Every structure is written in structure tokens, then in C-alpha cells.
Amino acid sequence: MAVKESELNTLGHEWCLGEDGTHCLLHETFADSEALLTHLDNVRPSLSELLEIAPITRLEVLGSASAAARRAFCEECRTRPLDVRAGNTT
Fold it and tell me: What is the pTM (predicted TM-score) of this model?
């Protein structure tokens, strides 16, 4: 099922591959923490294999995420606790 159909509150996915082909930047945008949890549920079947190929080496979270979303992301993605940042734009 396409992301647009199964993850209505996933606002976007973008990725850029480094010039040398060894690094990738993934930028995902979710409407809320529940949308992130839904996304994790959907990618869980292939996540272990993906992380063997491309482990997460850096993680930044902009905005706020619930404790449940932070915990789930850390466990599923084999990463340290999230660096949650808050701010606003004018």
C-alpha cells in the first residue's frame, strides 16, 4: 500500500545521497507523534534489514515528540534517545 493511502498524516519524505555515495540524509515530516508511530508500524517488517545496510548515525528531531514516539523510535531504529528541540518561526 502506498504511503499516501496508509499514512495520511505523513506529510513528506525526502532523501539526498552524498556525492561519494556513502551517506544519505533522510528527512521525514509527520503531523504528530501518532503519525510517526503509524509509520514505524508500517516499516517495521523491513526495518531490521534496512538498518543492516544503512545504520542511523545521527538523528535530529525538530518539534516535539511524545515519550511513546521517542521510546519506539529509539528501540526500532537502534539509536540513542532523541534530541528533542522546540522552537517557533515568525
Answer: 0.75
